[in-house]
Amino acid sequence: MSQAREKTIGVLVMSYGTPESLEGVEAYYTHIRRGHPPTAEQLEDLTSRYRSIVGGVFPLRENTNAQVEALQQKLNEIAGDGAYKCYQGLKHASPYIEDGVEAMAADGIKEAVGIVLTPQYSVMSVGGYMKRAQDEAAKHGISFKSVQEYHLHPELIQALSTRVVEGLNRFGEARADTLVLFSAHSLPAKVLEMNDPYADQLLATSGAVAKDAGVENWQFTWQSAGQTGQPWLGPDILETLGRLSDEGIKNVLVTPVGFVSDHLEVLFDIDIEARKFAQERGIRLERIRMLNDDSQYMAALADSVIGLTNGRAN
């Protein structure tokens, strides 16, 4: 990695991470479980999900790499070459968050900004990423700021609303009778006791996207809850689809506002599991295109980073 110029600001782009191959699933799952290896049944379940969507090719890793590269290009375009330098830091895979900060230190970075590829803040998600990054930055004498949220950034809302309109148009004459179902990754229900803003911010994003897209018929649901033996935020998308079926709904456009790229929770949990569940109940289920490295999404990220380093409140 080339040396950063003296006044270059480092940008640590963080996300959940994914294994690079089927052979890496066990180590990845073990890290998620804080060092406790999964049972053979748990490992087979996760591995089979990856097989079913990608056949051994892992799109999340490729998408995350592309997002970091696209953000670097957008920052260069807005602020000029060398003003910012992006580094990648993953929660559960290499390069880990600490690796990204170490790479900054090796390049002589003295000032850095962290941003997570999740628009809505939760102490359990974005907050956890930022704490790890902040702690590592302190070890290296790097001044570190965090973009806490960007869930209502106009560029983000417009990028999502454009996709909602596109998705609705796929229903043709049934467009007017199609329900837009916004979704996001569930968290343990105990997060509600912390006055955590996650749920409220997701509803705010959903409402803003619906308004921009001219949609009145919409609802919100949760998905992809963990199997931890404790209550998670609900209702789950399958429960919601079951209720919608009972209400006679025949067309649903899933809009996962809590996710920004094609990965397991989208390609399996929605495209395979939820679609099959819906079809069995006479519901046509479609999904919006994911943001991935969309230019407007990159503009939202870049503006959030630049705004923080220029002293704008986040």
Automatic annotation (TrEMBL):
MF GO annotations: ferrochelatase activity; metal ion binding
Reaction equation(s) it catalyzes: Fe-coproporphyrin III + 2 H(+) = coproporphyrin III + Fe(2+)
EC annotation from Swiss-Prot or TrEMBL: 4.99.1.9
InterPro entries the record matches: Ferrochelatase, Ferrochelatase_AS, Ferrochelatase_C, Ferrochelatase_N
Major localization listed first in the record, in broad terms: cytoplasm
Keyword flag Metal-binding: yes
Keywords: Cytoplasm, Heme biosynthesis, Iron, Lyase, Metal-binding, Porphyrin biosynthesis
Cellular component GO terms held in the UniProt record: cytoplasm
Residues binding Fe(2+): H185, E265
GO biological process, one term: heme biosynthetic process
Localization of this protein: Cytoplasm
Source superkingdom: Bacteria
A Pfam family: Ferrochelatase
Chain sites annotated for binding Fe-coproporphyrin III: Y16, R33, R49, Y50, Y129
Pathway participation: Porphyrin-containing compound metabolism; protoheme biosynthesis
Gene3D superfamilies per record: 3.40.50.1400
Role: Involved in coproporphyrin-dependent heme b biosynthesis. Catalyzes the insertion of ferrous iron into coproporphyrin III to form Fe-coproporphyrin III.
Entry's family note: Belongs to the ferrochelatase family.
Protein name as it appears in the record: Coproporphyrin III ferrochelatase
Gene: cpfC
